[in-house]
Amino acid sequence: MEKLSSMKNIVFLKLGGSLITDKSSAYTAKREIIDQLSIQIRDAMAENPSLRIIIGNGGGSYGHYAVIEHDVTDGIALKKNAIGFSYVQKAVTELNRIIVDSLVNKGVAAVSFHPSSAVTGNDGKIDSFCVDSLAEMVKVGLTPVMYGDIIVDSKRGSMIASTEMLITAAIEPLKRHGLQTNRVIHNGIVKGVLDKNGNVISQVSHRNFSRVKKSITKTEGYDVTGGMLHKLEESLKLAENKVQTLIINGVSARNLLKNALLDKKIIGTVIR
Amino acid sequence: MEKLSSMKNIVFLKLGGSLITDKSSAYTAKREIIDQLSIQIRDAMAENPSLRIIIGNGGGSYGHYAVIEHDVTDGIALKKNAIGFSYVQKAVTELNRIIVDSLVNKGVAAVSFHPSSAVTGNDGKIDSFCVDSLAEMVKVGLTPVMYGDIIVDSKRGSMIASTEMLITAAIEPLKRHGLQTNRVIHNGIVKGVLDKNGNVISQVSHRNFSRVKKSITKTEGYDVTGGMLHKLEESLKLAENKVQTLIINGVSARNLLKNALLDKKIIGTVIR
User: Fold this and answer.
1) pLDDT tens string for chain A (272 positions)?
2) Could you tell me the pTM of the whole model?
3) Which residues of B touch A134 (CB under 8 A)?
């Protein structure tokens, strides 16, 4: 365990729902891909022992189907369907457990961090994020894995907090605990933001955003939290606070995720 | 969903590890007993719709064996065994999921509340308990189920927070959220605190505690969190704050737990 003597740098790593599940098939995890990612994460941490990662996994076909199946898109307040919260929580927790188990099996001291126990919402926006445990987990050498989750919303009863929303909301309070987020890595099915010809756009900023926006193609399958456009908008907000975002597909080339974690040159899109 | 117009009364219900698991056998849940308890909880809530319950389940043979198997009794700091945290978290979460699933299957809108995401420790004591989500869950009509869990400890790396410790730590912060704890019910394998002849002592207070202490028999199997004596000591602390504790075995007579939840007269020990 380390003492908090100075600011520590952390990397947020999002494992996209489209990559780790089959979005066209309900409740189906892609276990081989998950294991490949786990190995790269372990190897990056072995090569750079000072690397501190907070992982967030998307809900993929677990989250999206559960939300629709149990009719909680607009919350649980009006329809008095409180038990819908229970079912969605079960589904997204199950996928998170698969990710954490894979990491632990590969030797990473990964632990679940459950947003529904630490984050509250109000009218579809994150209202409070208690990061005490999250910060302490990182400081004692654990690798927390959070996930897109159903959380309580004081107006709607419930809301879906996407991994992107959670990452954005965590950055400031983590700073007060001595944890500085340098980079957010979105590891998904696309190799980066693609132009109309399918080539990776290497960099996005406020200057070229309106142009880039037009060329964004829709993501496959269900996505209740908005896909690539949502990611870019959240990333541009982060860029204003000097947090760099990287969009990659970590299994599209050998050790791509590992190299991205180690801040080596790779194919992908940087948002800054 | 309800508006917070006035103080709401809540009951904490602990489902003892000895009752819901086979403490002499690792990772073995007693599913029939769990289902019986779930039905009684559902029926009590149906009979009194204003009843608000926060459940906490003991770790039983999941928690106790995992802690010993992965050698985290004294924390993860000194032995650099951070991954032990991962394994214990997995074990206790698994038992909690069995409880929540049982409740949901019987129609209770139960959700997991994960202490490791909201509670931190320092040198074996609870340091902070962020109850925002817990309180909001109750207010939107959910029934949170927390559990004895491994949590981060800024000195030892990790510590085990027993359900008793968690309940005691939650009561004051919940009050600030408008939730007043009236009663704590310990639902375990014993019908109450027993005297030397095996009869239930109907009441324990500071006045007769030293006498009662001598007659307490040890609980069966492993118990890393201290058994009946620990329960009584925590309960006497609560009594100082006007919170009444009840020790019962809710499956020892028909509808005993249900009647206890409805504050009807039943066989058990009251600590006040």
Assistant:
1) 444 457 889 999 999 999 999 988 999 999 999 999 999 999 999 999 999 999 999 999 999 899 999 999 999 987 679 999 999 999 999 999 999 999 999 999 999 999 999 999 999 999 999 999 999 999 999 999 999 999 999 999 999 999 989 999 999 999 999 999 999 999 999 899 888 888 999 999 999 998 888 877 554 344 445 577 878 888 998 999 899 999 999 999 999 999 999 999 999 999 99
2) 0.93
3) 117
Instruction: Quote the CA–CA distance of B20 and B38 in Å, as a whole number.
Output: 11
- Which of B8, B52, B3 is closest to B178 using CA atoms? B8
User: Of A86, A97, A109, which has the smallest distance from its Cβ to B83's Cβ?
Assistant: A109
**Structure-token pair, residue B100:** 């929540």
Contact assignment for A90 to B110 by CB distance below 8 Å: no
Is A46 at the interface with chain B, CB within 8 A?
no
Q: For residue B244, give both structure tokens.
A: 């009444």
Q: How far is B210 from chain A (nearest CA, A)?
A: 38
**Selection from B73, B84, B175, B85 nearest residue B124 by Cα:** B73
**Is B147 buried (19+), middle (13-18) or exposed (0-12) by CB count in 10 A?**
buried
Q: Is A154 on the interface with B (CB under 8 A)?
A: yes
B117 and A134: CB-CB below 8 Å? yes
Question: Which B residues, 196 through 255, put their C-beta within 8 Å of a C-beta on chain A?
Answer: none
Q: Rounded to 5 degrees, what angle do the CA atoms B20, B23, B29 make?
A: 40
A146 vs A148: CA distance, rounded Å: 7
